[in-house]
Amino acid sequence: MTPEYSPQASPGTEIWRNCRLLTMTAGSTLIDDGVVVARNGRIVFAGAASAAPAVPDADTIDVGGRLMTPAPIDCHTHIVHGGHRALEFEMRLAGASYVDIAKAGGGIASTVGATRALSPEQLVAEALPRLDALLAEGVSTVEIKSGYGLTIESELRMLRAARALATLRPVRIVTSYLAAHALPAEYAGRKADYIAEIVLPGLRAAHAEGLVDAVDGFCEGIAFDAAEMARVFDCAAELGLPVKLHAEQLSHIGGTRLAASRQALSADHLEYIDEADAEALARSGTVAVLLPGAFYAIRETRKPDIAALRRHRVPMAVATDCNPGTSPLTSLLLAVNMAATLFGLTVDECLAGVTSNAARALGLFDETGTLEVGKSADLAVWNCTTPAELAYRIGFNPLHSRVFKGQQQ
User: Fold this and answer.
1) Of 230, 228, 224, 232, which is closest to residue 249 (Cα–Cα)?
2) What's this model's pTM, rounded to 2 decimal places?
3) Contact 338, 345 (CB under 8 A)
4) How far is CA 272 from CA 79, 254, 350, 369, in A?
5) Which residues of 147-156 are buried (b: 16+ CB within 10 A; e: fewer)?
6) What is the number of alpha carbons within 13 Å of residue 175 lying toward its C-beta?
7) Closest Cα to residue 224, out of 193, 201, 186?
8) Across-strand partners of 380?
9) What's the CA dihedral at 143, 209, 164, 287 to 10 degrees?
10) Lower Cβ count inside 10 Å, N or C end of the chain?
11) Which pLDDT tens digit goes with each residue over 267-321?
12) How many angstroms separate the CA atoms of 205 and 211, rounded?
């Protein structure tokens, strides 16, 4: 087992100076001579050097004119799982669709056996390389879903593994309960029974154990419809848990409007949304999480209606959707490039998508995602000088250093 991460003593006061600073606060622009001051892991100043306070006896780090941003956030992942689905990749190359593969017994169901067979310790060991790849790009916060166990105990085991990762690495882990992800073979033709016997009692058990931060589901023709997901969301509301939803990825069956009606933190994928969906998301304040890695991997042709999301000023986040079948992607920087090149997001939209809006999608905007007074000092220093470089390069990691809660990594 990997040794537990041992954080240093709570940092005192630190100053990062001589940086090109992008705070990602509303209306912020690039500050050429920027300074960030943190005390005990919290930001007390972020802005121009000319306005910075005098802080005697602080540790000072000269950033050397590099770009500094909030540390990126990956707000949608499935990094805890067993096995892989490389054979399905070959099937897609031969022309099979995601739906074809799922109906043939592949897809989510094919990962279930491999995941059920692993202990929490084994699940952690499998997930660590994927987590490390994200941290190597400066990521401070990772959302991790269950959903490959599909029994009460195996779903809990996944969530325990997710929680354990935060004891092994300097990272903030947010968990989502996703038992309503697929119908296991033993419940074929009995979705209502699966929800009643596994999903709902499993959610209550996960909540009682302190393992769940939000409740998710896959609202799709090959998974669960909006009425079925509403039952799960009713239970989440009883427990005081926020919700989010995989919606309108492969078809349009009402998941986005269900999510909006429940003031969901996020609705994710959204390839098949329409104007009314975008309007509903805007009214509810729900974040649209775009997952270009899945769009790319399954060779989808329908793109999310970015123009509608812009018209209604829906906040857009970007994430890897790291999973074994439809987005085996462990680079948030590549997801940013894909969001720009495949979906047409601007550089500003891309960067907000992995910082401020990603924090909103996890209910963490008061804690992280921008560099402003009171927030956690989660910073990324890049070997570049312009924000566009973070979106334009492909397969190149310009990270210079990562700061998590004020501690240089």
Assistant:
1) 224
2) 0.96
3) no
4) 25, 10, 20, 28
5) bbbbbbebbb
6) 25
7) 193
8) 69, 402
9) 10
10) N
11) 999 999 999 999 999 999 999 999 999 999 999 999 999 999 999 999 999 999 9
12) 9
- From residue 64, give the alpha-carbon distance in Å to each of 23, 52, 251: 17, 17, 49
Which residue is it, tokens 């919606």?
247
| Residue 409 buriedness (CB in 10 A; 0-12 / 13-18 / 19+) | middle
Which tens digits make up the pLDDT trace of 67-77?
999 999 999 99
Q: Which two tokens stand for residue 323?
A: 């999973």
What is the C-alpha to C-alpha distance for residues 404 and 409, in angstroms, rounded to an integer? 7
Angle, helices 120-135/152-168, rounded to nearest 10 degrees: 50
Q: Which two tokens stand for residue 252?
A: 């349009």
H runs (alpha helix) in 210-331: 226-239, 255-261, 275-284, 292-297, 306-311
Give the C-alpha separation, 254 to 252, whole Å: 6
Residue labelled with tokens 């098949």: 272
